[in-house]
Amino acid sequence: MYKKIISLCIFSISFVVFSQNNEGSLTGNIESTFQYLRADSLIGAELPPEKALMNTYMNAFYTNKGFKAGGRFESYSPHINGYPTVFSGTGIGMRYIGYVNNLVDVTIGNFYEQFGQGSLFRAYENRALGYDNAMDGMRLILRPVPGVIIKSVYGRQREAFTNGQVVVTSGIVRGIDGEIHFNEAFKCMKEKKFDLTFGGSFVSKYQKDDKDNLILPENVGSYGGRLKMRYGKLVVDAEYSIKENDPSLDNKFIFNKGHAALFNIGYSKTGFGISVSGKSVDNMSYRSNRDQKLQVDLINYLPSMNKTHTYNLVASLYPYATQLNGEIAYQTEVIYTIKKGSKLGGKYGTTLNGNFSTAYKPRQVTTGFNPLDSTGIMYSCTPFDMSSTLFWQDINFNISKKFSKSFNMILNYFDIKMNNDYSTITENATGVITSHIGVIEMGYKINKSHSLRMEVQELITNKGKGRDKGDWATVVLEYNYKSNWFVGFMDQYNYGNPIDELRIHYVIGTVGYVHESTRFTLSVGRQRAGLFCVGGVCRAVPAMNGLTLSFTQSF
């Protein structure tokens, strides 16, 4: 306890002393979420012994010429509903010190970093997900000549924050990444229409062999390359990575290599845009601790190939989580704006958006070897060779139209298929769950100070074994006064539940106040159980009945 107090005092005094210099800059932010809950057996909401829960964070970052330092103070007393159990207590969750100039950027302590698209290495934080795999060690970035960047990292990952102390993983992560932007590096290409960037990475992890029945590799390497090309309105971005044999709990301790191939092709001009993306992944769960699961100790990041949805019934009832052990996925999106003044475009124009995404299990050809023999290689897998097993499919489109200066409308339709046998989110269904969702969003500006927004949503599921909880309807109403006050109301109604007593209204009301960089929000009501996902990474959100008060402040 005394060590915590001393560390906090030193941390605080250091920032105060540094900030006295007028040449320096001190910035940061505070975020606090408080919940007061009550039991609700009808929706399965449990009452924690404490009744009241709270998460609080404060970031502070100081810079002075080339010097930099920063840290984050965290408090979970205890953590809010649905947050990972590895968050508890009060203390310093992140701290660093460093120096930067035109040639070098060195950081000692905690840092976040990403190589390329992240298929080999990504250390990042997402507070809404309760995800933080910050590195604790050293990062060095070199810019020896224009257009060339070399990054190196070394350290251990944050695994948990328990009793106010950061717990790091048992494994060590080290990596190097290089990138060259030819149009900056070579004078002859500076004015060219063709833009080219190449990059390459090598990452390895060390973990002691702690199994008696297997001979495990203690050092596991991974490597890959990437390129990005732009010619006029056309952009091509691709990355390919290989991971050496890495037996783990995720892959049931087999000795197969892994691969990840990602690409994106995009074209855009005024009023029109199209993008096609693809991903082929097999056995690419890469952790600094081979015995962990879920989102703990992941070294890399494999983005999901589907549109990020924001409407309630679409985003949280049947969202898609990336399959770490393997998937082949594609996504295509088209945006077209009908010109203003045309018959279909009207006075303000009309925007059409269509999106299609799908993910399948890779085709794995069994070799017949035993995992305990001299090879441990269980199958072969070719990039982009997919099986007939569907993980996910999403077909959606919307029409956005502004009818006047005061009124606009968005019409949406979503057809989503999710294989619950692989992305298990409910115990009430097996196989593929099919949902059809329609959403109408309307906005009306009464005058300069007052505006209204309304959403009407309906979700219909297929019949039979994939029906789950049946059909839903949601209404959202929002009133805004100037840019300071807002009041919201949402009612989610599970009107199609097969069990009559569970045809429940989940009603929640919200009021908020915003002034410059200060924001207060108060919500009261019921929240149904579901999933919260960002970029294919998800956390379960349990049912809740009670009050939530949040406060944010930037400085």
What features would you highlight for this structure?
555 residues, mainly beta, two-stranded antiparallel sheet, 33 strands
What can you tell me about this protein's structure?
This protein has 555 residues and is mainly beta. It has 3 helices and 33 strands. The protein has helices at 2-19, 182-185, 312-316; strands at 25-37, 52-64, 67-76, 89-100, 104-111, 113-114, 122-123, 125-126, 131-132, 135-142, 148-162, 165-168, 172-181, 194-206, 219-231, 234-243, 258-269, 272-282, 326-338, 350-362, 365-366, 379-380, 386-402, 407-419, 432-445, 450-461, 472-481, 485-493, 505-515, 518-527, 530-534, 537-541, 544-554. It has a 24-stranded antiparallel barrel. A two-stranded antiparallel ribbon has the order 6-7. β29 and β30 (518-527) form a beta hairpin. The two termini are 29 Å apart.
